[in-house]
Amino acid sequence: xxxxxxxxxxxxxxxxxxxxxxxxxxxxxxxxxxxxxxxxxxxxxxxxxxxxxxxxxxxxxxxxxxxxxxxxxxxxxxxxxxxxxxxxxxxxxxxxxxxxxxxxxxxxxxxxxxxxxxxxxxxxxxxxxxxxxxxxxxxxxxxxxxxxxxxxxxxxxxxxxxxxxxxxxxxxxxxxxxxxxxxxxxxxxxxxxxxxxxxxxxxxxxxxxxxxxxxxxxxxxxxxxxxxxxxxxxxxxxxxxxxxxxxxxxxxxxxxxxxxxxxxxxxxxxxxxxxxxxxxxxxxxxxxxxxxxxxxxxxxxxxxxxxxxxx
Length: 311
Known about the structure:
Layout: H1 4-33, H2 36-62, H3 76-105, H4 112-133, H5 141-170, H6 175-202, H7 212-220, E1 227-237, E2 240-249, H8 255-268, E3 273-280, E4 284-287, E5 290-294
Parallel strand pairs: 2-3
Antiparallel strand pairs: 1-2, 4-5
Helix pairs in contact: 1-2, 1-4, 2-3, 2-5, 3-5, 3-6, 4-5, 5-6
């Protein structure tokens, strides 16, 4: 684990306390003022509290060492937590849209000044929380999920404040559900990206920033590599990319040099956990499924595996 993780956890904890404290204020303010935007944002903050607590719990669990059952440790808990966060965000947004549609049909009286005061306070709180998490917004997927939750709250506070000003200045209460729908659509867009990336990692798809053809091209470009096959690249958790593959070399003497060169090539493009099996040409035969494949009598071949761990 990197030295940044304890600092990131400390920032998450501060945001959790800040969010939980203001959530109650916003819920009461929304109920007293009659504002759907405030009630919706308080509900969003409630999911934030759960999301942040889940993020902290999974971050702690992810630091547990690997054992004979969990051979990679518990890194994937962060991805599972991010997936849950994305689902909750999408579900909450759907509820807000449903409630807003009801208010379009039956407008609700709103206490404008109280609405505006609570919305302004929420804006300040969310700006502070966003500043705390900004450093980690491009880090691991779970912290990014928390960042998206807070960003959704910030947008909610901005929208609520605008709606409050419209209600105060014009008396047009439909501004409240309209703003709520717009905020929900923005949150859905963010949660969709989060869900998509989480599912791709859980399916062990090749990461989009490291194209498989580029990995193969670099490996084939190493002097002494005749062929590459059985190549797999996947993400263990945010920022930890793994790879396994076979390379074919002309003779046994080429093994150490080729192995080291291939490891350097793939590390240069961001792959930190590498397993390479090197095979001699005389143990491989042409195959319909690839340029070269191991022969049936592969026993006795010299296989070298490299495991550089940069995460």
